[in-house]
Amino acid sequence: MALSKRERQALIKEMARRYKRAGKRERGLMLDELCALAGNNRNYAARLLREEVRATMPRCRRGRSRGLTDSPNLPGPLAESHATLVGVSTKDVARESGVSTGTVSNVLNHPERVAEDTRLRVEETVRRLGFVRNESARHLRAGRSHTLGLLLLDAWNPFFTELARGVEDWTFARGWAVVISNSARQVERESIYLDLFVERRVAGIIVVPNGDLTERLIGIRRRGIPSVMVDQMDSGEGSMSVSLDDVRGGELAVAHLLELGHRHIAFAGNPGRVTQVRDRLLGATNAIAAASLPVRLSMLEPEDLTINFGREIGEHLVRLSASERPTALFATSDMLAIGILQVLLRQGVRVPDDIAIVGYDDIDFARLVAVPLTSILQPAYEMGRTAAELLIDQLSGTPPQQPHVVFEPKLVVRESTAGASEC
Question: What's the mean pLDDT in 180-194?
Answer without folding.
Answer: 92
